[in-house]
Amino acid sequence: MNSTIIVGVTGKPVATRAVDWAIDRAAATGQRLELWAVVGGAIGMVGEHAVVEEARAAAQQLLDGHADRARQRGIDVSTRVDVGNPVARLIDASEQAALLVIGSDYRGPGDGPARGAHGIRLAAGAKCPVVVVPDFETAGRSGVVVGVDGSPVSEHALRFAAAEAHRVGEKLIAVSVWTPVEAPRNALVVYPELYLSNMQAATEEMLALAVAGLASDYPDLEVEQIVERGYPSHVINARAQGARLAVVGTHGRGALARFLLGSVSQEVLARLATVTAVVR
Question: Which family does the record claim for this protein (predicted)?
């Protein structure tokens, strides 16, 4: 099993938060780090070589500074500067990684959605779990929130979240959300109480079955089960406001995986509530 954590590093301030998160995890788990910077935009224009080489040198200097901090923690770390499409290069690299860590410049409510499509495409196309670190402080938070919908991919997300919660000694907060059948936007809809109660009960049963198998692997893990009516991304992010980690699954695969995430995971990433892992 590959134990390398790859960190995509840019010149943005949030890159330091992403590297710090990866350093903490590597120090706790004994994993090695590989810090990547990708110089993009080269098209082979005459005179471009000198510009690219200067960018490569600046990127290497940036990586060396981060790598020094990792070595001070006793972590095995290497660096790599590449040239090309950053999304494509990191997706290819993820095939040989246990985890891909990237930063997002989202700074919380009021800052608008996370900018740029690179993070969304990386999370959708990566061959390993992707951890997205927002550009705000999350120290002092507790608990690991995971979205569960009964699908095979949410089972993978649940297992990942349980392993993380067990590793850090935190409570696992398993969240399932049900949404009534949509009606025309302007219609005054009153749902039958039996329908609503049945939806709640069915979702509670699904969640109970999903988490039941965790006890054999993590007998001491505290698991809180939450079932709410609403829209999944809104409920997950609301619950994740005070959590140290949120975990969601993605169904993205195939050629379109480099461009698309499932709507819920994409919306969770667009307004990050905490450090968030996307698991296939």
Answer: Belongs to the universal stress protein A family.
Which of 79, 83, 104, 101 has its CA nearest to residue 13? 104
Q: Are 258 and 125 in contact (CB under 8 A)?
A: yes
CB-CB contact of 32 with 79 (8 Å): no
Strands 99-103 and 172-178: unpaired
Angle at 215 between CA 209 and CA 220, to 5 degrees: 140
Does the pLDDT of residue 105 top 90, yes or no? Answer: no
Res 52: pLDDT: 87
Q: Quote the pTM value.
A: 0.90
Domains defined for the chain, CATH in brackets: 1-103 (3.40.50.620), 138-280 (3.40.50.620)
129, with CB counted inside 10 A (0-12, 13-18, 19+), is buried
